Structure formats: C-alpha cells, structure tokens
Amino acid sequence: MIEPGLYKAVMAAFPSGVTIVTTLGPDGGIVGITASAFSALSIDPALVLFCPNYASDSYPVLRDSKRFAIHLLSADQQAEAYAFAGKGKDKAAGIEWHLSERGNPLLSKASAIIECELWREYDGGDHAIMVGAVRNLILPDEQPVPMIYHRGKLGALPAIA
C-alpha cells in the first residue's frame, strides 16, 4: 500500500497550472471548484478533462449541469483560487463574473477559458474524471502571467530562460 502522506508529497513536487471550473447552480448562482487536475485530452474531437473530488459540494452540480467553463488562472487570481477551493455556497462573493453566450459563468482576468459540454464521466478512485467536449475557446487580448501550483503554494509562473 502507498502511504498517503508520501503520495501527496511526491505529487506536490510536480508543478501544475491552476484552473477554476464553473457552472450555474439550480438557483442560477455560480458554482465551482479550483482544480489542478486538468489536462488536454484530444484535438479531434476537441476534449479536455478535469477531476473533481466526489466529496466536493460542487461535484454533483457540475455533473448534473452538463456544461461548464474551465478557467486557466492568471497569477492575479489567487483570491479566486482560494475562494473556489473552499466549501460553501457563496464562493464567488465579491468576485467579478458574467454569463457567456453559452450560459456559463465566466470569471474576469483568466489566462484563457474553455467552455465545454459534458462528454463522458469515468470513475477515478476518490475523484471523478469528467471529460468535456470543447464548445468555445476564449483568449484575452493581452496574455497575463499564468498561475502555477507547486508544493502547496500558488504563484506566478517565473520567466522561462
């Protein structure tokens, strides 16, 4: 058996990007999670995946809504990353967002946004593997510095030499 603390320490040694996945809840409010378990999957068809914890309050809403927006966070979005990493219903309190033409809640200042429809879901142990069919891509005019997650800390991607 793999010791969970060691497993977490080894996985924390791998730097990753940070995303927030959002959808609308049944009451019309924004629901979402912060996720570093995100990946491109396929170009044809265009598919991406993210992996929410089954224990997350947001997981059933994301699953049932069948559509969501994945925000690739900029370094300026630490407050948003921490807000959506927490539990509770008012994660977006004080955070600027608007509805897209596709009906997804979009956050301001992201490095990029991927709007998806749920394509498939698979079991991944204590997490779901949710695959989204890409329906819209959004890039800002100015490319902000992306956020990374490494050894339990969020920060700006340093300049690559």
Automatic annotation (TrEMBL):
Gene3D superfamilies: Electron Transport, Fmn-binding Protein, Chain A. SMART domains: Flavin_Reduct. PANTHER family: FLAVIN REDUCTASE, FLAVIN-DEPENDENT MONOOXYGENASE, REDUCTASE SUBUNIT HSAB. Belongs to the non-flavoprotein flavin reductase family. InterPro entries: Flavin_Rdtase-like_dom (IPR002563), NADH-dep_flavin_reductase (IPR050268), Split_barrel_FMN-bd (IPR012349). Residues 11-156 form the Flavin reductase like domain. SUPFAM superfamilies: FMN-binding split barrel (SSF50475). It comes from Phytopseudomonas dryadis. The keyword Oxidoreductase applies. The lineage of its organism: Bacteria, Pseudomonadati, Pseudomonadota, Gammaproteobacteria, Pseudomonadales. Keywords: Oxidoreductase. This is Flavin reductase. The keyword Amino-acid biosynthesis does not apply. It holds the Pfam family Flavin_Reduct. It comes from the Bacteria. GO terms for molecular function: FMN binding; riboflavin reductase (NADPH) activity.
